[in-house]
Amino acid sequence: MKSRYKSYKTVEDLPKLAGETVTLRGWVYKKTGKGKLQFIQLRYGTGIAQCVVFKNNVTEEAFAKAKALTQESSLTVTGKVVASGKAPGGYEIDAAGLEIIHISQDYPISAKEHGDSFLIEHRHLWLRSARQHAIMRVRAVIIKAIRDFFDASGFKLMDSPILTPNACEGTSTLFETKYFDLGKAYLSQSGQLYAEASAMALGKVYTFGPVFRAERSKTRKHLTEFWMVEPEMAFFDLDDDMDLAEDLVEYIVECALRSCQKEFAVLQRDISALERIKRPFYRISYSEAVEWLQKNKVPIIRKIDGRDVESPFPWGEDFGTVQEEALMEQFDKPCIIHRYPAAVKAFYMKRDPADDKLSLAMDMLGPEKAGEIIGGSQREDDYDTMLERIKEDKLDEADFKWFLDLRKYGSVPHSGFGLGVERVVKWITGAKHIRETIPMPRMIHRIIP
Amino acid sequence: MKSRYKSYKTVEDLPKLAGETVTLRGWVYKKTGKGKLQFIQLRYGTGIAQCVVFKNNVTEEAFAKAKALTQESSLTVTGKVVASGKAPGGYEIDAAGLEIIHISQDYPISAKEHGDSFLIEHRHLWLRSARQHAIMRVRAVIIKAIRDFFDASGFKLMDSPILTPNACEGTSTLFETKYFDLGKAYLSQSGQLYAEASAMALGKVYTFGPVFRAERSKTRKHLTEFWMVEPEMAFFDLDDDMDLAEDLVEYIVECALRSCQKEFAVLQRDISALERIKRPFYRISYSEAVEWLQKNKVPIIRKIDGRDVESPFPWGEDFGTVQEEALMEQFDKPCIIHRYPAAVKAFYMKRDPADDKLSLAMDMLGPEKAGEIIGGSQREDDYDTMLERIKEDKLDEADFKWFLDLRKYGSVPHSGFGLGVERVVKWITGAKHIRETIPMPRMIHRIIP
Fold first, then answer.
1. For chain B, which end, N or C, has fewer CB atoms within 10 Å of the first or last residue's CB respectively?
2. Nearest chain A Cα to B381, which residue?
3. Nearest to B255 by CA among B420, B143, B332
4. Which residues lie closer than 8 Å to B384 by C-beta, 6 or more apart?
5. Is A235 on the interface with B (CB under 8 A)?
6. How far is B345 from chain A (nearest CA, A)?
7. Residues B350, B138: Cα–Cα separation, whole Å
């Protein structure tokens, strides 16, 4: 598209500008120099260009300005673009002129190692580092891949609301707010119930927005606010659901590999691990997984009287990180675990017709300790059964009247899942902690900046 | 991309399937019939196909099933696809077989006119109507257009958080929640402050997500939860900002015209009004607007002692709906009003160097009573001035420490704006009320379903 706004050239445009004289704007990423030479690494967007300021090529005033520049000062540089294998970013600017916009004083983040808590307190500045740029860029590519995947496959975007009058998956982990004269509202933990209404209206839909968990979990994988995409499909059974989940994850990895080679280099990510992510992935049932855990002596650890007590993993318990990581050590691709005990899964999941103790649920675990990246199921589509489940869970029937309506007026088999964006970004980038995978992470001890 | 999941054919695929025999799934949108013929309008996605069930062509059982179908019953139909100018949607299915999935009983929404409150109470079912499908499809096209516009123009997606420790635009209209042991958190009214941090890190960025206003506004244009895209650009001044805003709106309308002809027909939208939306739009200053209002005797109406008192519109007051609609009657394209009195605009806006009483603010008003669809400004980039503004507004300096840091370390001129998605969808679709422009609207008296 043709833009009318002043489309200044940026460091990211340099590959198209070799040989030309340009004026670039940006910030000082690093600076070195001695005698008659100043080397300024100019950053803009996700690019860095080395600007060479040679005393003989510029005015005395401009050279003095170059010397005065500090880390993160803002400036414009004018000069010729020269391809250079040695320069960071592959291009150099032979500076002919230079203007200071603003001198940064005592920038708190230096080249030296900083502690985690220092960096996260300065998240608004930490975002200026090349490593964070790379992660944010991979994040954006993944989000675009997800949207393109669904838009190109006949799915309709149907965003679910954040403010909801009731809880989808338990009430203990909800953020609560007052909603005018209508009592309390809660921040959505999942858009699924609404996505089900949308799927009955439009067939294949997806909702994609932030969701919230007021969990007191302090791990490398938990955020209190994160982005989730949730497709919901009329006429899909559990097998279709698992196939779609594999399709999506394969496509995401493919797009990241296609678009983020530069970023993976910055992140020193082993991309061979990602190149293996090709369908079919692995699939095992929950019962098979339990058998494997028992055979391989992966125990369950329970707190009894304040002490950790180990015992063989019993059928019926939900998996924790210990079990998931042990199971996944066998696999270099994602694995879907399906047909969990109904007792550990949500009320809206359909029971397995072959065994009423099981839910037609599925979780996709990622390799390389990625953990659960997808959770989904076929949904209960029978009105009476759903009503019974709502009562069993002691949920308020009135709150679910509209949800029950979906089973009353042209009910159909349907399935869906949720994919947590930050978990996937963490896995694909190899980030050590999930707080690096979102611009402004929200965790139990962190709401600033 | 090639999918492995069972990609059943849908009503939306019919144009590619003429002459073939297919099995379709869906719901009964309408049904008529007499004697040996049953006409079923089968809906799926945003498509409708007429299925002709002729007694002589199907089993007696299948014909009985067709007769038993009610509005919104779910079914599969097998038959040959025939192009037909007379059929709604342009294609007919000559049914050879038919299976009922689920009979819908006493579907509450019929062809007859329903009151607004009835429809909104049944939003989960109302979404099944052709008119709502059309609006939702235009909404999705607009959202995709916005994302494509920014992704293709070098902008980085940098989503701002929803949970924030302080208010961006006043505290009286915030949803509040408890945040663990860190005190109160508020639902974001705008991602702008965070977008500014992102722009200093990456140059041109955008944030795109739900935002919240706990306003007691009960109009056709207000939602308490709505989606907003907010671009923020380092090195952009107010003129660049206005140019970008025009570019974006022109592109959105262009995409809608290209992709939504069918939807506009369903909505009976006068598309000639949209075809006029070509740059340049109109631009007038606030002072020029006030002059026009005075000359054309558009008054301000104030409540004094419980009575409405009219007086000439005085320079310095903010515009309300009365003034905006009067001003826009002159224009068949959007109009940007710029340089408002600083007193009616937010603390973070830069003052006009030519007149300190003015903010470098701009609002874009849409034609056809669309109201304000964009609000933006150049931002104050001087540390001391920003600190002064924060103190003037009696905001807590400590809350804005990180925001002030952006003026401390390589500050640059920068600008941005916010575009409200639902306002734009309302304008482009011609929807009467904003509640039709989002799947599950949230308003002062509405949080269910």
1. N
2. A102
3. B143
4. none
5. yes
6. 24
7. 35
Nearest chain B CA: its distance from A207 CA (Å): 10
Angle ∠(A439,A443,A448) on CA atoms, nearest 5: 60
Give, in degrees to the nearest 5, the angle at Cα B264 between B219 and B122: 50
Which residues between 332 and 351 in chain A have a beta carbon less than 8 angstroms from any beta carbon of chain B? none
Task: Tell me the residues of chain A between 17 and 36 that have a Cβ less than 8 Å away from chain B.
Answer: 25-28
Which segments of B106-151 are extended strands (E)? Answer: none
Per the rule left: phi > 0, alpha: psi between -120 and 50, beta: everything else, A339 is left
- Give B388's strand partners: none
- What is the residue type of A196? E
Distance CA A344, CA A317 (A): 7
Contact predicate B371/B321, CB 8 Å: yes
Instruction: Establish if A372 touches chain B: CB-CB under 8 angstroms.
Output: no
- Checking if the pLDDT of A3 tops 70, the result is no
What single-letter DSSP state applies at residue B121?
H
Per-residue pLDDT tens over the stretch A408-422: 999 999 999 999 999
Neighboring chain B residues of A216 at a CB cutoff of 8 Å: 180
pLDDT, averaged across chain B = 95
Q: How many CA atoms lie within 13 A of B360 on its CB side?
A: 23
pTM over the 0.90 mark:
yes
Which residues of A are less than 8 Å from B72 in CB distance? 409-410
Smallest Cα–Cα separation from B348: which of B276, B295, B291, B407?
B407
- Tens of pLDDT, residue by residue over A139-188, are 999 999 999 999 999 999 999 999 999 765 566 789 999 999 999 999 99
For residue B61, give both structure tokens: 């059982």
HSE-up (13 A, CA, CB side) for residue A404: 16
Burial A19-58 (b: 16+ CB within 10 A, else e): eeebebbbbbbebeeeeeebbbbbbbbbbbbbbbbebebb
The CA angle A145-A151-A152, to the nearest 5 degrees, is: 85
User: Which residues, at least 6 apart from A184, have a Cβ–Cβ distance to it below 8 Å?
Assistant: A165, A176, A177, A178
The minimum CA-CA distance between B449 and chain A, rounded to whole Å, is 6
| A71 phi and psi angles, rounded to 5 deg | -55, 130
Q: Does B69 contact A at CB distance below 8 Å?
A: no
Residues listed for chain B = 449
Record: contact A201-B127, CB cut-off 8 A: yes
* Contact call for A152 and B209, based on CB within 8 A: no
Q: What is the ipTM of this complex?
A: 0.97
Cis peptide before B280 (omega within 30 of 0): yes
Going from the N-terminus, what domains does chain A have, and what CATH number goes with each?
A: 11-102 (2.40.50.140), 123-437 (3.30.930.10)
Whether residue A73 lies within 8 A of chain B, CB to CB, comes out as: yes
